[in-house]
Amino acid sequence: MPTIADREADIYDMFLLADELDTHYLIRASHNRKVNKSSIHSNGSGENLWDFMSRKQSLGEIKINVPAKDGQPKRIAVCQLKFGKISLLPPRSFKGNKSVTSALTLYSVQVSEDRPPRGACKIDWVLHTNIPIHNYEDAIEKVNWYCLRWRIEIYFKVIKSGFNVEHCRLEAADRLIRYLSVVSIVAWRIFWLTLVSRVLPHGLASDFLSKDEWQVLFAKFNPADKIPKKPPSLKKATIWIAQLGGFLARKGDGSPGIIHILRGLKRLSDMMVGMRLYSSIYG
């Protein structure tokens, strides 16, 4: 499984270590590096990465689903796709192993949006990988991998914002590790529910909730109706959960986000405790 990282991982030492460990990566470029140099000490040879990629011929179009962010609505970006094979020598500022003089072989994929909407941030990526790219399909695959980072960011948003792990003070590292292990499992379930309720809206609530849980939800939001034998859809149950967490579910609100779902699940958990206490007291 390759390591996928954003621009902060565009570090020569990272590329070198991956080569030494015989592992793979996909990293978005941050630096306009000098590539295809004949030797580490040559000044005139080689060319800048951006110039090298600009001369490559487009292989065709690719459409990228860009999520809503910073007040901008989600959109489909139509981009041109290019790729090229480059050699990368240590930069002159490299302070690592001075015996490293041979070039690393990288494959770079560029995705550049043709006509971004006014006010939108243009998609213009260069992705580095040490996995060979031979054709359009190989390049598309790497872009699709990189696009998964948006889902990864959502997952970690649950961990960081939903559970405030950065403010956790457990004094000992082993306690923090155990706490993170539990939180990671819970965060995954929240992430799973958020995603699956959108892509498989007609699934059943029983795929995620126990019978008692979906029945309590149904009774909460349909107090005048009899509890049905068949569970509601997963999408409907997810909206109910989010409403417990403050989601208004208005016509133009779209699908609920992870924070509303997290808050709603916490409230549902409290409701289940109350139901069990009531049952134990009154039978």
Textual characterization of the structure:
The protein is an alpha+beta fold. It has 2 domains: 3-147, Alpha-Beta Complex (Transposase Inhibitor Protein From Tn5, Chain A, domain 1); 153-282, Transferase Inhibitor Protein From Tn5, Chain (Transferase Inhibitor Protein From Tn5, Chain A, domain2, Orthogonal Bundle), CATH 1.10.740. The protein has helices at 12-21, 49-54, 136-147, 149-163, 173-199, 211-221, 234-244, 258-282; strands at 3-5, 25-28, 34-35, 47-48, 60-66, 75-88, 104-113, 124-129. It has a 6-stranded mixed sheet with strand order 1-2-8-7-6-5, with helices on one face. The chain has a two-stranded antiparallel sheet with strand order 3-4. The radius of gyration is 25 Å and the shape is elongated.
List the strand order in the largest sheet: 1-2-8-7-6-5
By CATH, the superfamily of the largest domain comes out as: Transposase Inhibitor Protein From Tn5, Chain A, domain 1
Q: Which CATH architecture of the largest domain? A: Alpha-Beta Complex
Report the span from N to C terminus: 52 Å
Please indicate the count of domains: 2
In short:
With 283 residues, the protein is an alpha+beta fold. The chain has helices at residues 12-21, 49-54, 136-147, 149-163, 173-199, 211-221, 234-244, 258-282; strands at 3-5, 25-28, 34-35, 47-48, 60-66, 75-88, 104-113, 124-129. The protein folds into two domains: 3-147, Transposase Inhibitor Protein From Tn5, Chain A, domain 1 (Alpha-Beta Complex), CATH 3.90.350.10; 153-282, Transferase Inhibitor Protein From Tn5, Chain (Transferase Inhibitor Protein From Tn5, Chain A, domain2), CATH 1.10.740.
